[in-house]
Amino acid sequence: MNDTTLNYDHIFDKAIDRLHSEGRYRVFIDILRNKGKFPNARCFAGHNGPKEITVWCSNDYLCMGQHPKVIEAMEDALHDVGAGSGGTRNIGGNTHIHVELESELADLHSKDGALLFTSGYVSNEATLSTLAKLLPNCEIFSDELNHASMIAGIRNSGCPKHVFRHNDLNHLEELLAATDANVPKLIAFESVYSMDGDVAPIEAICDLADKYNAITYCDEVHAVGMYGKHGGGITERDDVAKRVTIIEGTLGKAFGVMGGYIAADQNIIDVVRSYAPGFIFTTSLSPVLAAGVLAAVRHLKSSNEERDAQQKNAQSLKEKFSDAGLPVMISNTHIVPLMVGDPIKAKKISDILLAEYGIYVQPINYPTVPRGTERLRFTPGPQHDENMMETLTKALIEIWGRMELELKKAA
150 Cβ partners below 8 Å, 6+ apart? Predict the structure, then answer.
């Protein structure tokens, strides 16, 4: 008889203690957004009653989660069809709203079809793992900075993978050239990389895919709604959507609600729909959510007002940070990362901003970014005004001085 008793609590405590010691323990801030007034919100953490704060780290990039058209569409759907979908898509959970939304997303990306998932994570994991398993002896080529969900899908496919240096076309070609010409190949990458704010050379990647007979998978979650005349992302902006085999996107960022999807030729959609466990065995997206997204997609197809205002504010904030000598990272997208380089300091800056200034931004630590590159990631939206940006910049200058961090004023 084995008398050894496992102390499970001790194992779990040690795991959490490691995070605390490395400054990586994540604290979820207790807030409520103020309908119609975002980025204003109420914070319930660390004090009695709600405290008014300004949110600077939301992925609701265009404030569509607050848009009257979106809210009205969700309210109408709630009273028309009820709250839930009723099941999986093949058993009671397929509604006309789902069908309409998929048609709208397919059109957005110039594809024959689209397929909805409950999240962007699920769409990546389910699609990548399923396709790679179905392609005999498939080998996958993955950018080193790809999302965790893409990595999970690639891992779960069980296929050989080759990781190429971030946006390094020469390295990608070296790997492709060294692979058997007769095996299927899949190149997986993102359009906008959300932690650095840089963009993939999509057209050049497609050129390599053509040269080495590979298919392409482009994650556009941080770009859909944000770029292109109709919000189709970087692939629309750069006129390469038709060259990318599969475009994946989210419904929870620029579109402001929840869910994920892929857009591709109909035969690929049918294969994923028919084989992916992450789609087949999951209750479908609530029709209330789908209705809200449908309204958001349709609005952003015809309105550039939100995109223009967001880009203007992002550029303005970058300039204010740079002029103040704050270590803003170079970015030509809507992401405004501020380098700290230390997890404990990043968390302390975040805590001071919230407690003393009513400014909410979460620190970004490992494993989301490499160790030593910890940062604050700001996502200015169309509703962040000049006064908010000035207040934020002045607060950061004061905290940088208090913590004896270096400011680099332009010469």
Answer: 124, 125, 128, 142, 188, 190, 219
331-359 mean pLDDT: 94
Structure token digits, residue 88: 């999986």
CA atoms of 89 and 325, how far apart (whole Å): 53
Q: In the numeric block, which tokens belong to residue 253? A: 């960022």
Token pair recorded at residue 174: 């070296």
Amino acid identity, residue 358?
Answer: G
User: Which active-site residues does the annotation give?
Assistant: 253
In terms of DSSP bridges, do strands 215-219 and 246-250 run parallel, antiparallel, or are they unpaired?
Answer: parallel
Spacing of C-alpha 235 from chain mean position: 16
HSE-up of residue 126 (Cα within 13 Å, Cβ side):
27
Q: How far apart are CA 163 and CA 166, in angstroms?
A: 9
Give 55's strand partners: 360
Q: What are phi and psi of 258, to 5 degrees?
A: -165, 145
Identify residue 143 by its one-letter amino acid code: D
Return the CA Rg of the chain: 22
Average pLDDT over every residue of 86-104: 97
pLDDT computed for residue 411 by the predictor: 43
H/E run at residue 154: helix 148-157
User: What 3-state class would DSSP assign to 75?
Assistant: helix
**pLDDT at residue number 47:** 62
Per-residue confidence at 177, pLDDT binned at 50, 70, 90?
very high
Q: What is the pLDDT of residue 195?
A: 84
What does the alpha-carbon distance between residue 184 and residue 135 come to, in Å, rounded to a whole number?
Answer: 6
Long-range contact set of residues 164-167: C-beta below 8 Å, sequence gap at least 24: 166/193, 167/143, 167/198, 167/200, 167/201
How would DSSP label each residue in 293-304? Answer: HHHHHHHHHH--
Q: Which two tokens stand for residue 62?
A: 């265009």
- Hey, what amino acid is at 390? E
What does the pLDDT read at residue 218? 98
Cβ-Cβ contacts under 8 Å for 325 (sequence gap 6 or more): 407, 408, 409, 410
Decide if 383 contacts 38 (C-beta within 8 A): yes
- Token pair 């223009």 in the structure block, residue: 308
Residue 366 confidence (pLDDT): 87
**Phi-psi bin for 128: left (phi > 0), alpha (psi -120 to 50), beta?**
alpha
Please say whether the dihedral angle defined by the alpha carbons of residues 94, 224, 263 and 180, taken in this order, is positive or negative.
Answer: negative
